[in-house]
């Protein structure tokens, strides 16, 4: 049975951030995720999780200067010390909030920049991240992202992400399979889920969903999510499925797609 986590960066924007936890729990969610927690004290977020009986599924490590357009620093040459400080901060939050998945964003690469150098830095930083996270039982996940939404993002394809995980060789480094991004870049989601879910190394550590192409609720667009949910179940995935979509209107009004799964649960 699929288990869904509300993404509080995209959903429930009609509420202040710390009030979104209660709104998600009221609608039946048992877990949440979001992009970044660092504007808030970990203790404040933890109290909202506990008050509402919610599990923290995932968040992202600090991405560099997000407001200036940066989208991660893990593959950026010359930013290695900053990456290590960002990782330390992220792991402090995972220790407080209890999530066992931490997303590390790769970053942007310009057409004239050396891709092999970026890849070398990326692999080394991922090795360091996985090693630092392992004693705490945290799995580092990397996410291929489409270049329509984030032009120049370093990592775009599922097979590339799996190859990077294989090369690093850490048992707690896996791929974050975002159905929305994968459909835009590659399509053929069912085949890729079957191929990668049971890989002896790497594999899929987290799944996210959204309708394609508008990134609204998963009950509209070109993907057949009921089929994909059944497939994911049949493949033995027991992790959370993050609902990383932008509601068409009020978040609660668009949750008709979720109700059958809550009733079954």
UniProtKB/TrEMBL annotation:
Domain Xylose isomerase-like TIM barrel: 21-260
GO molecular function: hydroxypyruvate isomerase activity
Pfam short name (any one): AP_endonuc_2
Keyword Repeat belongs to the record: no
Keywords: Isomerase
InterPro entries: HPT_OtnI_isomerases, HyI-like, Sugar_Epim/Isomerase, Xyl_isomerase-like_sf, Xyl_isomerase-like_TIM-brl
Catalytic residue positions: 143, 244
An example Gene Ontology biological process: glyoxylate metabolic process
Family: Belongs to the hyi family.
PANTHER family found in the cross-reference section: HYDROXYPYRUVATE ISOMERASE, ISOMERASE
Name the UniProt record assigns to this protein: Hydroxypyruvate isomerase
Organism listed in the record: Caballeronia humi
